[in-house]
Recover the amino acids of this structure.
């Protein structure tokens, strides 16, 4: 069974570029041209992975991310794919439930690398447990390392928590 990916991107050229690259890697791709359509695709297709642009019409990517978590729960990885690279937007994305954050200038190769990473069985198996442990520690105001070795942010202005490097 092929793994499925929702790609939400309002730029038709980029949406086609990402979809074609993912299809060449044998993923079933469900493109969405705006946030509303992304939520429809997520609810209908129940994908294995979600890529979201942030600046989209109708519903922005951060709101889509938050709503997608209600639809698919914690087990499906969500990767923000955006031109925005400021710390505040990254932190808002992670707080909304994003697992990863790629700045578009990193290129299609990075998108494919991240897709392979997030589709790996080991990554998917550990994702929900890691996220739950990290969020509990953050709620309790703890800093340092979580059991998986990820560093938790200790003060404003530091890079936000991400299970993988943020590509810029």
């Amino acid at each position: 069974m092929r793994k499925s990916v929702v790609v939400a991107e309002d730029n038709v050229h980029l949406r086609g570029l990402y979809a074609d690259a993912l299809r060449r890697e044998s993923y079933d791709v469900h493109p969405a041209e705006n946030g509303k359509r992304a939520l429809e695709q997520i609810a209908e297709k129940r994908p294995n992975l979600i890529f979201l642009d942030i600046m989209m019409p109708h519903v922005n990517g951060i709101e889509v991310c938050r709503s997608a978590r209600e639809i698919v729960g914690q087990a499906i990885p969500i990767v923000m794919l955006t031109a925005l690279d400021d710390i505040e937007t990254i932190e808002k994305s992670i707080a909304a439930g994003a697992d990863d954050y790629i700045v578009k200038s990193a290129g299609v190769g990075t998108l494919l690398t991240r897709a392979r990473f997030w589709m790996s069985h080991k990554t998917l198996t550990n994702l929900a447990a890691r996220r739950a442990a990290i969020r509990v520690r953050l709620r309790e105001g703890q800093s340092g390392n979580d059991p998986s070795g990820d560093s938790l942010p200790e003060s404003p202005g530091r890079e936000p928590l991400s299970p993988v490097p943020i590509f810029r």
